[in-house]
Amino acid sequence: MPPTLLNFIQTFEFEFAQIALAATVLITLMCGCLSPVVVLKQRAYLGDTLSHLVFPGVIAGIVLAKYSCIPFWACILLGASITAFIGTFISEWILKTLKIPPDASAIICLTSFFAMGIIAISSNKGTRIDPESILFGDVLTLTINDLYILMLSLIVVFISIITLRKHWDAWLTDPEFAEIAGFKVKLLDKLFPFLMTFAILSGIFAVGGLMISALLTLPTIIFQPKSVFSPIVVLISFIGGILGILIAFSFNWPVGPSIVLVGFITILTKTFVVHLQTKKRI
Question: For residue 95, what pLDDT is reported?
């Protein structure tokens, strides 16, 4: 066996590498479960928006944890949940009042809340806060406790999708008719942003807020399912995560961007193949 390959395999004997691998698997499975809902409902921008909306809340949570006896994860969850709720409310309020496109309202709020986070960082120089760790994550710094949180997130997302599968499908197809027909449309209207926020918060320190919004979109673009739950999409997300972490460890790249790069290259390949097939038909 070549020395470089042997060294690479030996890397996974260390606990940090095992935790990183387990976290990557949990995150990609969770994103694979939620991805069809995000794309089929045309809410891909929501992931990017929420990743920015929670930014100042995460900063506030870190500061709160420093000066209180509340557990670190509870402070982060509390702060991020509050700013996500406030940001979503403001975005919807601007959208309905000014009658502007949804993406414009989202851009206004996400950039403004991101600016608040940067100001919060600059105002707390005594607290060691790295904005890059929030935006891009660092899966190598996770602990066993982080794996428990990710596992809980995966279970919540999976159960929410599977148990309400027919309601999700109806909600995606025609929400107005679905509500008349007795499907739980109002419940899903509230549950969907909750699951998105939950997924982003659970993976924000692993792959980062910006990267996880891409992971929620890429698998369903690669394989476009007909239903809200697709085992193939979950499998694609899982394979992309494994390839991403292997590439990251091989070239000493960050894990989150490596997974996204794998997905992007796959989409480029699919686009090229579809283009060739279209030209042959013509």
Answer: 80
